[in-house]
Amino acid sequence: MERLWTPWRYEYVARADETSSCPGVPAALSAWTESGAVDCGCVFCNLIAAVDYAVAHGMPIAEAEMAAHVLVRAKTCFLCLNAFPYTTGHILIVPYLHVDSLAALPPEDAQEMMALAQRVERVLRAVYRPAGMNFGLNLGQAGGAGIASHIHMHALPRWIGDTNFMTATADTRVLPETLDTTWIRIREAWQD
Description:
The protein is an alpha+beta fold and 192 residues long.
């Protein structure tokens, strides 16, 4: 019998019976949600608000960003790791502006999103050496958006043969590294 060790899932399993009062705020930053700085409506808006509040109240910025898996903060957009990745290295490019369509995004924001996508491609290629990549936007619930109210672009590395019985028959992805490890690797490569 083979064993699949996933120790990073313990935090999730241990809290499985709890209901999240504020989606998108990681456990390490949950104390900051009581401040009223986070509105508990949008996952992405909550994430940035929780990081900002934690930093404003003394948490080192790198520590707050790592807790939230925020990789980079640019002028109009930020990058974060997908909390439920399809593959290791699954990055989200998210504008700060809360809009639900590409057409509603101001040109400056759309341009920065694409410039960040180009840089993400270079970084993911350097860090993971993928055989290919997927970049895309899912607009609206019918378009496959899990968070339809706040536009975001997915960027993820892909490898030939990156499907096994767990995905094909059990609808389960097996990821070879923790989100913290992924954050460290991508963050270091981004800063080079």
